[in-house]
Amino acid sequence: MQNELTNISPLDGRYSEQTKDLSIFFSEMALMKYRLMIEVEYLILLSEEKSIKEVKLLSPLLQKKLRAIYEKFSIIEAKKIKKIEATTKHDVKAIEYYLQNKLVSLKLTVYLPFLHFAITSEDINNLAFSLMWQNGLNNVYLISLLEIKKELTAMAKKFKSTAMLAMTHGQPATPTTVGKEIAVFVARINRQIKQLQNHKLLGKFGGATGTWAAHQIAYPKVDWLKLSTKFIKSLGLEPNLLTIQIEPHDSIAESYQNLARVNTILIDFCRDTWSYISRGVFVQKNKAGEVGSSTMPHKINPIYFENAEGNLGLANALLNHLAQKLPISRMQRDLTDSTVLRNQGVALGHCLLSNKNVLNGLSRLTVNEMQLKKELDDNPEVLAEAIQTILRKCGYNDAYEQLKELTRGQDMTLESIYKFVKILNIPKIEKQKLLKLTPRTYTGLASKTVDLCK
Description:
The protein is built from 20 helices and 6 strands. It has 454 residues and is mostly helical.
């Protein structure tokens, strides 16, 4: 029997404790359950359609019994479906045969001809896979992403006025604040969260080639477009009434791409944080008993941000392939989407694992204000921008060139900069402004911009 030590995938092995919440949405058993739900709900819908006289209205009690088939679905029942599939070699047909047995046991054999009536496997599958993605995203993944946003927002506000030396091209640059730099990531993540929350997944239910041909030949007086629209909306999806055999997957591809953008932002955050730790401006809390290096006992490695970065990359590889592959199908249908779609849960598993590692990393992070001050004090040349800007204001045509000659490639001190300022022919008020300036105070509106972070 497989366990966390013998499973091939680390999501089901080494990291199973961190990803187990997704199992109820993306396991093989979960897919069976979603398929059962759609088949049962479709049968109930047909029974409620007055124009279809051959399907008698199912009473509330019978509807309850039918819904119990998927609501109380267990591993024992899942194994029964796998046993049927071993013969059929068709997973959706195995669902249908399993339901036939259930109808017989419930003495509802009159409904047997209307199980899976006039529809194709893809009518079931596209709805099932979209619901799996939607529910896993909303009920598990987004919770972790919102927690990251919450932690980063708190950090941004706490350190909104804590000055930090900025680095552009790896070189000392105009100072910023810790809070402002964190707030940038909050704003970026928040924009993607809103898109994820507002995005609608599409569903189709139009039969073998999206024409409702079988439906129409059997019951020409039924408004199948209206009925299909009602059914798809009842599941929490938006109807797509113009399709081939498969729902073209454009909407779910959009969601994958949205998530990939979140991951790219988090990769950027993890790399920045890694660099801040390397600089010593961020420090990780020591945890008793933990080992940072097998040979260097002094080390506390930024393993959570490194683990997150690695898994975010894996997730994006899968998400980008899903988004690029799924919208492409030869003519009215090929089967390449089927095996690919089964991996959407794997992609989300790596996303969830990454988020949890980011949160773990953040919980151990502290800001080293002494190092922040030291870096600022060691790089007074960053005030060159301020001085040359004032000189421009005062009419100097060669302001930039003067400061370039003074500071570029030179070992500057605050005193040498003040000495230069004192001999400038500029208004006293401007001179006094510059003489009071230090790298620690030259942060502009950085702290105020943090308040823009919602």
